[in-house]
């Protein structure tokens, strides 16, 4: 997967479709934040954990608010667990996503779903500050392709699976709700839509989840049994991040880890 590309995360706001989607010194001490780069440029990124992850600032929609600001920084890394934070202030259109600060996994991908036994992930996060006008989501973004050489958010993408842990201020997924689903012991609203050339399924938590721990493979299993998703599809990209439309906030991830087994 290329190191820099614009993610088209499938998102909408009140019925309007929107296209979303230097080497660090590892440390287990959050007191050594200064050893990690502050990412403030539009396409700034940083390798974390000897290449296991890449942290992106990814201001793909900043043209909708050229005066907006955002910075993203890793704060610690231990084992396979990354801590990071992003702080932003965005105005402009409330129906346009401005960015997708995210962590991208670089290992264990390009397998068919049938060859994946589990995708364990833990994500503990919080808003340390958030304006009353905030419109944003916090979400996983998983990409499938017919080919192992495919990439996320491209003409080679066939499916995008989003898992929304948070939706504030009226943000919602692309498409329309087609039902509810119970996955991993939790209740989710299930949406289906189309963005560019791929189909999007979005699982939206019925209440905000700030401490998630589970097997993401369960979402694919659900779609295979209920929506006919083929297990011959390849998992080619896995991200986790936040999409702000408008407002200001500081989002802190105290622990994030994901593996594809």
From TrEMBL:
> Which branch of life, at top level?
Eukaryota
One GO molecular function term of this record is: cellulase activity
Q: Which UniProt keywords apply?
A: Carbohydrate metabolism, Glycosidase, Hydrolase, Polysaccharide degradation, Signal
**Gene3D superfamilies referenced in this protein's UniProt entry, alphabetically:** 2.60.120.180
Q: Which InterPro entries match?
A: ConA-like_dom_sf (IPR013320), GH11/12 (IPR013319), GH12 (IPR002594)
| Gene Ontology annotations of biological process type | polysaccharide catabolic process
Q: Which residues form the signal peptide?
A: 1-20
* Coiled-coil blocks: none
Sequence similarity? Belongs to the glycosyl hydrolase 12 (cellulase H) family.
**The protein, known as:** Xyloglucan-specific endo-beta-1,4-glucanase A
Q: Which organism is it from?
A: Rhizoctonia solani
């Amino acid at each position: 997967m290329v190191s820099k590309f614009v993610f088209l995360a499938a998102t909408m706001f009140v019925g309007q479709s929107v296209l979303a989607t230097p080497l660090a010194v590892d440390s287990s001490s959050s007191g050594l934040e200064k050893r990690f780069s502050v990412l403030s440029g539009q396409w700034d990124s940083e390798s974390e954990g000897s290449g296991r992850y890449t942290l992106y600032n990814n201001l793909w929609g900043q043209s909708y608010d050229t005066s907006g600001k955002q910075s993203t920084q890793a704060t610690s890394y231990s084992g396979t667990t990354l801590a990071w934070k992003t702080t932003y202030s965005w105005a402009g259109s409330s129906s346009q996503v401005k960015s997708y600060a995210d962590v991208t996994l670089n290992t264990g991908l390009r397998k068919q779903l049938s060859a994946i036994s589990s995708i364990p992930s833990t994500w503990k996060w919080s808003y340390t500050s958030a304006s009353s006008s905030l419109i944003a989501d916090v979400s996983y973004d998983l990409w499938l392709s017919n080919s192992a050489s495919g990439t996320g958010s491209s003409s080679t993408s066939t499916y995008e699976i989003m898992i929304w842990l948070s939706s504030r201020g009226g943000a919602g997924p692309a498409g329309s709700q087609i039902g509810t689903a119970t996955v991993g012991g939790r209740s989710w609203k299930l949406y289906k839509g189309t963005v560019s050339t791929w189909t999007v399924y979005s699982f939206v938590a019925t209440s905000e989840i700030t401490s998630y721990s589970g097997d993401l493979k369960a979402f694919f299993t659900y779609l295979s049994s209920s929506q006919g998703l083929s297990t011959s599809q390849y998992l080619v990209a896995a991200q986790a991040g936040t999409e702000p439309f408008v407002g200001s906030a500081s989002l802190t991830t105290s622990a994030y880890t994901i593996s594809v087994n």
